[in-house]
Write a structure and sequence with these properties.
Helices cover 45% and strands 14% of the residues. The chain has 289 residues and is of the alpha/beta class. It has a single domain, classed as TIM Barrel (Alpha-Beta Barrel), CATH 3.20.20.210. The strands form three sheets. The protein has a five-stranded parallel beta sheet with strand order 1-4-5-6-8.
């Protein structure tokens, strides 16, 4: 089958609108490191967009920062961005300490998730795939040069990132997160090309998602960016399974109702909250063995 791409409308969505900045009147960048402020921002964004859930953490840099990345947090209007690379080689990266979920911004994100759940909110935690993390840590050309010369080194890096992300998912489940939203904007088909996309799906994405689905075990729903879903289905590494849902409900309502019933979905963008599924079918993503 041919791999196709999903037209993303939210690539530059990091940072807050002037409405949110004015409404919350929170200081930046300090608020990114304060769980009370993060929860306040999440609720404000939810209300602004009229969503049925709160989303954290507003950027694609949290995991990388927790692995030693140097991040410029920005002023709220402009979201967090990598400042400079922390590692010169993949060997250096593999010597980095595993993520400590009891400190730093990643800890504040988890505390914010817990706080929101205690208020009765539905919470989606966005986690990043390997390329979005690596782009914040090292010159990505080093990664691809190493892949050609030393594939086992790249496999070790994939394993290192996978292990840390799985521990993140475990921590998220423990604080009651409803949805784990997985995306890798820096690892899309139009960036990697067909061959690297295929290799990444086989070496990282499928093994990682199988472990993640086993780990969540109905406690929360894994939501894939449709770019990832189309890669997996296009490579025959996954297929769809229709799940009957009530008539005329939104995609996110169907997703929230599916928690505990199915493991993975990803037919549309989670940010398209109000999209109504007229055919009464939610499409579960079934990973092939």
């Amino acid at each position: 089958m041919k791999i196709s791409d999903y037209p993303c409308k939210h690539r530059n969505a990091a940072g807050f609108s002037q409405y949110i900045l004015d409404k919350t009147a929170l200081p930046f960048p300090e608020s990114y490191n304060n769980h009370t402020s993060l929860a306040t921002l999440a609720i404000a964004v939810k209300e602004e967009k009229n969503f049925a859930y709160c989303t954290l953490p507003f950027c694609h840099t949290v995991e990388a920062e927790a692995l030693g990345g140097r991040i410029s947090l920005g002023d709220g209007r402009i979201g967090p961005r990598p400042k400079e690379y922390s590692f010169n080689t993949l060997e250096d990266l593999l010597r980095a300490s595993p993520i400590n979920f009891s400190k730093g911004r990643i800890h504040q994100v988890l505390l914010a998730c817990s706080s929101l759940k205690k208020r009765g909110e539905k919470v989606a935690l966005e986690i990043c795939g390997p390329y979005s993390i690596l782009n914040c840590l090292i010159d990505i050309s080093i990664f691809f040069k190493s892949w050609r010369k030393n594939p086992r080194l790249v496999e070790a890096v994939f394993a290192f990132i996978s292990d840390n992300l799985l521990r993140y998912i475990q921590a998220a489940c423990e604080v009651g997160v409803d949805i784990i939203s997985y995306a890798d904007p820096a690892g899309s088909l139009n960036i990697l090309g067909p061959q690297y996309t295929k290799n990444t799906a086989n070496l990282f994405t499928i093994p990682f998602l199988k472990k993640a689905e086993h780990l969540t075990d109905g406690r929360c729903l894994i939501h894939l960016c449709p770019k990832t879903t189309l890669i997996l289905t296009g490579l025959d590494l996954a297929d769809y399974q229709n799940v009957c849902i009530p008539e005329n409900i939104s995609y996110i309502e169907a997703a929230l109702n599916a928690i505990g019933k199915i493991g993975i979905i990803g037919q549309a963008c989670l940010k398209e909250d109000s999209r109504v599924l007229g055919n009464r079918n939610l499409r579960a993503v079934r990973l092939r063995l």
